[in-house]
Amino acid sequence: MKDVIQRAVYVIYTTVEETLAALRVADPLAKAMHVPLTLVHFRTVPYATAVGTPNGVSPVETDAFADELRAEGFDMRVRVLLCRNPRQGIPYAFKPRSLVVVAGRRSWWPFGGHRWRQRLEAAGHYVVFVDVGSHKESFKEQLSA
Description:
The chain is of the alpha/beta class. It is about 40% helix and about 20% strand. The relative contact order is 0.21.
């Protein structure tokens, strides 16, 4: 098997709670590997709106989210990718065989963390899935602490 050199550890933004759970797993990985941590938000833009001029701001660009990241001590890059369909944006967001951490619950919702895991693995990436559904109470305790 060919050696794979990771240039970053990526986290996909799903929801605030899930993303913070994923960052708690990804941050020590990135530090241990001596690579940057990058938060990626696939922001879908409706067809009625021009891709380059979406309404509002991404949740990862808000002051409240930035304050939460600073409070947790995360040092990372943030990328917001504007797209019509997040699945089609995957090749533009990551280099081949990237390490991606995504959190969520196993559900039917098409853009939930579990579906992200399936799509990323199908695209050839290494995925760490943090199932917040099985640890819901412990994550709520960590968020309130």
